[in-house]
Structures are given as structure tokens and as C-alpha cells.
Design brief:
2 copies of one chain form a homodimer. With 526 residues, the first copy, chain A, is of the alpha/beta class. The first copy, chain A, has helices at residues 44-63, 66-82, 84-95, 99-122, 172-180, 193-209, 226-233, 246-257, 279-298, 317-331, 341-355, 382-387, 408-417, 439-446, and strands spanning 11-12, 15-16, 23-24, 39-40, 129-131, 145-151, 155-158, 184-187, 217-220, 239-243, 265-268, 274-277, 310-314, 336-337, 361-364, 372-373, 376-381, 399-405, 421-427, 447-452, 491-497, 518-520, 523-525. In chain A, the strands form 6 sheets. Chain A has a 7-stranded mixed β-sheet, with helices on both faces. In chain A, strand 10 (239-243), helix 8 (246-257) and strand 11 form a beta-alpha-beta unit. In chain A, helix 3 crosses helix 4. The mean pLDDT of chain A is 96. Strand 21 (491-497) of chain A pairs parallel with strand 20 of chain B.
Amino acid sequence: MNTPMLQGLSLMGYGLAERGAVSFQARNPATGAVLPPHFYRASEADVNHAVVLAEAAAPQYAALGGVVHGAFLRCIAEQLEALADELAMVVPQETGLPEARVRGELARTTGQLRLFASVAEEASWVDARLDSAQPERLPQPRPALRSHLQAIGPVGVFAASNFPLAFSVAGGDTASALAAGCPVVVKAHPAHPATSELVGWAVVAAAQVLDLPEGVFSLLFDDGITVGQALVRHPALRAVGFTGSLRAGRALMDLAAARPVPIPVYAEMGSVNPVVALPRALTHCAELIADGLAASVALGNGQFCTRPGLLLAVDGEGYVRLRARLLGKLALIPIAPMLTARNAAAFHDDIATMAKQAGVVQLLGATYGEYQSGPVVLEIDAQNLLNQPALAREVFGPSILLVRCASALEMLTILRRLDGQLTATLHAEPEELADWPGLTALLASKAGRVLFGGVPTGVEVCPAMVHGGPYPATADSRSTSVGTAAIQRFARPVCYQNWPEALLPPALQLANPLSIWRLVDGQRQR
Amino acid sequence: MNTPMLQGLSLMGYGLAERGAVSFQARNPATGAVLPPHFYRASEADVNHAVVLAEAAAPQYAALGGVVHGAFLRCIAEQLEALADELAMVVPQETGLPEARVRGELARTTGQLRLFASVAEEASWVDARLDSAQPERLPQPRPALRSHLQAIGPVGVFAASNFPLAFSVAGGDTASALAAGCPVVVKAHPAHPATSELVGWAVVAAAQVLDLPEGVFSLLFDDGITVGQALVRHPALRAVGFTGSLRAGRALMDLAAARPVPIPVYAEMGSVNPVVALPRALTHCAELIADGLAASVALGNGQFCTRPGLLLAVDGEGYVRLRARLLGKLALIPIAPMLTARNAAAFHDDIATMAKQAGVVQLLGATYGEYQSGPVVLEIDAQNLLNQPALAREVFGPSILLVRCASALEMLTILRRLDGQLTATLHAEPEELADWPGLTALLASKAGRVLFGGVPTGVEVCPAMVHGGPYPATADSRSTSVGTAAIQRFARPVCYQNWPEALLPPALQLANPLSIWRLVDGQRQR
């Protein structure tokens, strides 16, 4: 692909937005340097234009079918790979992330695109169901009924700051929506606009290679909230994907719920990801658990939504060993830039506030200037946490709060009162679980993913992954934003009654031309 | 079952609510007679007590598994069958429905309970996914990941007036929630409280037969909105099922969205159910189409959410024949009681208002007193409808608005601007569809179920049924409230990472002790 020079303009279908009145620039968080070029905020008219294009493209794009949707995603992956060297240069400038991480995240992104391509091509995800007619049935004949999932229509995607490729312009939300047959309008994250524009061009190029209807993809720039608000309010938008803070995610949820026609919001809003260490596991493995936790807390300078932010343990010799080892390990981690000055400032403020609360002791860490941060360890006893439940909420950065419980009962009480979580991790010897009846069910009632051992960071992209969980971890606990099931967010079932065979969608034709798994008169078959 | 005398008190788990300060009585819509006994409005404390019981029962009930959930539903069906003669007496008194309809609806209700029982027992609905560990994978080993759908927790169900059995206390919402493993708190419809109490006792008796945890079911009475509001606001409630009006459904949606922790609302709020008749079908089958429409409009005195309320056709000889035949058929339908005085008054007001709008001509029908109504036919031309889109909304009663279009373009324009619908029906000769490109996709984009010929009333209970559709037909177009897929509304996915085999839920154990269909390393197998 011949990458166009960066324009700083929103990509409107196959065209460009006009240069608007307001512009912004990214900054290099490692140096503080302002980066060229200027990016121009999209206007309300631009938002409208992008969604109207998407609405017009929607039926035609959906009707192209899974094979074309898959080819589109594969082509995006190729276009991105062709940009690898350029991205390896641009992404670190905008994010402070090291080149190796960027290349790794690019591989994750293209792998994700190809996984969704294979889901679209294989096509069984549409959950086709065929019930035969029973013309002789009494008192009423039964009609022929066939249903499957169809694309929901234009989807608005809000890119995240912490995965500039994998949860951004061509990340999981975009890939799963395009795989489902939905046009996508992305609101770029203002912290990495050049990255966004490069990736945006890759998507546009792939759409052009496949001669897809204009409007199947658009990309809007804004460093404020007006574009996002206009996008969510647009009457032709049908669903929203979002990864970011609880505050911003809830604002979008409220906006979507207040529309004349409410639409679903799939907001992944982070989590404190509790880690529970039971006594025998601590006795036998305190150091091993501590080593894993230290690496997981510090990974990506703590800017992962699955970073373990809360450790619960019953006080005792094992806990004391874990704490000592964790402090020793984290003390060795050098300070490093965070993704943005805003992230750094928010993290420093949050830690300073937490450290002042009753019973909180700061064991490690301080503040480190405008962009940088290093690991922070805080400690509290269970009673003080129970009195101040807000302390068990997410802080975005490399911190962990150790909760010293006097008893199993205290620990269970805290767990019962926790908010919804993306993950919950249990360190236990299998035998000691008999002493903790209901603990597994309790953890599963709180989180989308429960781990036995290990650390919650590292979210596999595969069929069984659930990157979701009860509010406030996500807006909609019935969904996942990572893994193949993410495609189901952007579809709804449609039933065809007594429809002529030749006029049915291929997934519902009796001959099963797509060779997909279907439920035929209640029996699963292919 | 020995039915207890009717108490008029809310059923709180295995107990009864106190007698409150406010009571109400049902009325026989055929005679206007006030019916005994008094029913006492539940208090806020009762609502809290019911939901707290449900919350306590939730993990234990969920853990009992699909075989027990299925046995519970089957036992409810048996208890209801034992009440058949009593229901055949009580339901007509409260609803004016004939005994034959009540016995038919009871069979539908018990059939539905047994269908959900078989879904729970078969258990493949949990969408189990197993991805093997890859300990050697580079750069990171892959953990073992296994996910399935788990019960979401206590569900609030709002009963409908128009199906006093099938969409009421032990109707589809209750059956699917109990099948998914969720406790249910029902808010009874005030129009048929004795029916509700009888059915409620049947559910309680079944729960006692199976020795289920108290709180798996409760039933609350109220003739106002305070109980429903308190139920939806209760922090331990996890989802809402509702069938009723758009106004009431939207109020519950707004209430649920404004909670500190928003919860999903599955509200089925009705629909105008457009019927499109293309020219050649009209030429060949105007009378056949008219006969079907007349029967469908008049069925149940028009009080079905799938009643066809809008007919679209291009003006011409075929349309004139259809209109004449429809008027002739509907003129023969005798007036009959509606379900409630409120329904009758609302219907009469709605028709009177519609008849006054520009271009509307009333061809049949007038108002008929406090409880009764008969068929109403209105006509308008397309331009006048386009100028007054509110006329294309649901009126609850036996009416139909005929829309005379001057051209195909006018008809398509109206269809494009229609709200979301439960159903859309197309009468066409298959050959003439070539002249209407995009029409099938347009109908499918508007509705949960599209019919080729026939009439939209008559909602099959089967795997392929979709009784859903875009807002305002329902709150959540991704779901159905009828058919086996309705169970998925009350579950969310949970992923177990590296969990010890013996501690996993049976659905996720490698040996597949439940013999369910699963996705194992991307392959569907049993």
C-alpha cells in the first residue's frame, strides 16, 4: 500500500472531511514533544455524513455474506502488515510503548482480524434454526419457521488508549462488527491520532480492494466529547462498542438509553480484578504468587484493564512473605512513561487520594512527574476497606492494594460486596477449597473470567474467552469484547415464516449451501 | 393439589405477605360485576423481602442444574393441569375470554413449560466452549479456557393482560428464567388477580414438591405502579421481563437504565404489524388475503400484539376488491367484551382520535360502551400517512388502517420510515418480487419475524421462533420472548481459566458428563 501522507482529517467513506476550525496534536509521552501533524476535529455534519454513508452501505454490505466479510478482514490484516515498519515508528512516538510491544500488538491485531474472518467464513455463528411445517397439525397447522442472526446495522466504535492497535481503529470491536456484516464508524482516540489515521487508511484500502460500498468504514477525529456524543445520538446508529473509563462509558450508556430509540452499548470499563490467596496456597507458594503478581501489576506500566489491583488474603506468615516478596520485586521496576499526561496525572491523584484514607498505608511508590510513573503498593485491613468500599475500585496504573483480612469471614464479606469484575483470580490448593464452600460460585457471580492460579493479564483471543463481566466492569454482562463470541453483539435474530426456498438467505435454505451447523427440528446438524 | 382458598395476598417464597392498607378487586368485563376476593397491594417491604429471598436462593437454585430445573417446570405444568377446571371457571370471569380459549391457552402454557424443561434438561443451550491449553506456545503459553452461560440471578417478570396464562405468572418469561436457573419475582397483572394467585400457588406447590430453596418464586399484587417500580429498582434484581404497552415498557427501561447498576429489560411492547400486498398477489388473491386479515384482526377481539394493524397496497382494482371483502367479513363480527374497561376506553379514544386526523376515513366501526368493542376499519392515502407517521403506531384492539398508495415508491417510503415491528407480512407472487429489489431485506430490517403470506397472529413456541424486533416493538432486538432462544436472555457467559477438572461445572468438564453439544478447540462436538 502506498500510504498517503498523514492528512489529519477524518476519513469519510472513501473521501476526507473538510478541515475544521479546531485542531489538536498528539504528544510523545516519553519526551513531552508535540507531534505533527495537526488533526482536525470532525464537525457534527461530518458525524452525520459518516453515519448516513454507513446506513446506506449497511444492507448491501450485510448481503455480501460471510465470505466477503472474511476477505475484507483478511485484506485489512495484510494492509496492516504492509504498514508494520511505519507503525513500529509512529506508535511508540504517540504512546511511549516500546517497538517490540507494538509489533507484538500488531500481530495480535492481525491475528484477531483473521480469527473473525474465519468465524465469518465458517458462518455457523448465525445460529440458524429450521423448524419444519406441520400442515396436518391440529387445531392449527404449523408454518415453516427459520431464523438466524442478521447484522444489526451501523456500529459506532470508540477506540481505547491502552491498546493503540488491538482495541483501536481496527481492533476487536471493529473486527467483530465488520465480521457480523455491520458498517463501522470509529471515533479515534486523541492520544494516538497518527496511528489511527494510518490504520484507517489500511481499512479504507482494503474496502477499495474488495470494492465494498462506500461508508462501510469511516474514522472521526476529536479531542473532546462532541463527536462521540453526536455519534451515539445519531438515529441511524444501531450499537456502540467502547473501551475506556467507567465515567466515559457510563456517559455513553446514559446517552444511548435516553435516545428516542435506545441502542445497546458494549462498554468495557475496566475492573480492579481481585486476587484471592487462600492460606495453604500462601504457605506453599507465597513467593511464586508474589512474583506473578509483581509482573502482572507492572506489565504495560499497569495500563491494562485486567491488571490485578486488589489482593485479598488472611493475615499470617504466608501473607507477610508474599508482601515482602512483592515489595522487593516491584521496587526493582524502573519508572516509565504512561500513555498520556492525563493518565499519569489521574493515577497520581488517585494514589494520593487513596493514601490519605483511613487505614491505608503506602508501602511503595510516590509520584514521578508529568508523564511517568512506577509501581505503587498500598495496604489496608479488611475492616477499613469494608467501611470505605470505594477503595476497591479501579485505579488505572501500576498499583495494587493489599487487603489484610483477620478471618475467612472478613474476606468473604469483602468479596460479596465487590462490584462486578472482568476477572477474579483464586490461588488455592484444590484440597483446601472444601473449607471454602461457595467460593468458586461467589467468584463466578462477580466476574466474567475466573482464574485458578496465574495472573489475569493476558487475554487470549479464542472461542472460550470472556472479556466481560457484571457492571461496572462492562455495560452488558451478557457479552464479551474479546474472543469469537464478540461477533454476536452486533446481530439480532430474524425469523422467516413460510418464505419461498429460493428467496431465503443461504443460511436458511434447506440444502444448507453454506454447510453450517444448524438446529433442524431441534437436532443439531450440518 | 389442594388449592388453598384465595387469600388475596402476595406469595412471599413459601409464605404470605401481610394484609396491606390498600386493596383492589377484579371486574368481570362481560358483566361489569366486581369479583371477590379483595387483593392487597404489596408494600415496599414485601418487594424487598421477595427479592432478598430470591437473591439468597439464586446460587443454590442455579447449582441444582438443568435436570432439576426441568423437573420443576414439568411439575408446574402438572400442577396447572390439576387446576384446569378451576382455571376454566376463574379466567373467563376475570377476562371475558371463552372457556375454550382458556383451555387452549392452558395447553400452550403447559406445553411451553415442558419445552423449556426439555431445553434445560438437554443443556446444550449453555454454549459450552473449551479451548485446550498450549503450554509450549511462544511467546506465551496458552492457558486452558472454558466458558459457558450461567444464570444471571433474580429476574422480575411483569405479567401481561392479554394472555392471562401464557404471558402471565407461569408464562414464557417465568418459564425461560426458571429454566435458565434464575429465581423469579412476578408482578401480577391487576386485571386477573385470582387467576394469578391460582397459578402462583401451582408454582409454589411445585417448588415445595422439589424441595427448592425458598424464594425461587414469589408473586406480588398491585393495581398501581409502585410495586413494579420498587421491583425494578431493587439492587439485587438482575433482569426484567415485561409484556405490555410501550408507555409502561419504556418507563421500566428508563428506570432500569438509571439504576446505579443498570440491568437488562426485555420488554415486548407490541407493534402495528404491517401487511404488504403486492399487485399481482392482490389481483390473484385479494379475497383470500382479505379473509385471512379479517380473521386475524378480529382474533381475540384484536388484543394480540401480532394483530395486523396496517395494510399497505398500491391502489387499483385488486386493492378495491380486498377492501370490499375485508369490510364485508369484519361487518359480520359481533361486538364483544375487551379484557378490561381500560383497554376498551383506550381503544375507543385511540380510534376517535385517529378518525379525526387529516385524510383518515372510518369505513367500519363505532364505539360500544364501557367494556365492549367490535372491528374498526380506517383508510388513509399514503401522502397523508407520511405527513402523520404517528398514525402508523399500535392501537390495541380490533382495528386496521388501510393505506392506499399511489405508487410502489410511496409504499416503499412508508415502509422505510416505519418503526421497528414484531412482524411484517408480505403477500406476493414469488415472481413479482424481482420488481421489488431490496423489499425482503427492508422488511427483515424492520421486524423480528417476516411472513410470506398468511397472517402474523399465531406465535409458534419452537426453536426458530423470534417474537422480538427492533424498538419500539421490543426493548432489546437481540432477544426473543417466545421460543427456546428466550432462555438466553437470563444468562451470561463465565470463563474458567486453568480451573481444576473436578472443580469445574459439569458442562465444562472434559468428559462431558452432560453429553451436550460443545465447541471444543473450535470444533462442534458432543
